[in-house]
């Protein structure tokens, strides 16, 4: 009888200590938040707009939509950008810079990959292109008004 009382008391004390330790530990920022803040500090005129679920939305004059998403089913991080149907060189440079920072690849490689993906869309290849360049998965889509690119890296890479 006395043994059960001491055992229960020890469990309660251990649970209380564990609860206090978890409350006292500092909160850690998500990889998306870190990537978005780093993008905003490194790229001119890029601003963090808001966060919804696992996606951080960004704004820049060269793009219609920008976002950085984390932890999907098949990828660890995703960069999404939408621009005009015929993207400008400033849009290519923006996507290349953002991808270089997020995926830690050289800016020349990411700009080249994004440019190839976006320029392949057309009459012969269609309005949806999926390609792989420098261990990055790129998917470009085009509508009557917009062209967009989604760059991801798989979870196993």
Automatic annotation (TrEMBL):
Domain of life (superkingdom): Bacteria
Keyword Signal on entry: yes
First and last residue of the signal peptide: 1-29
UniProt keyword terms in alphabetical order: Signal
Protein's recorded name: Excinuclease ABC subunit A
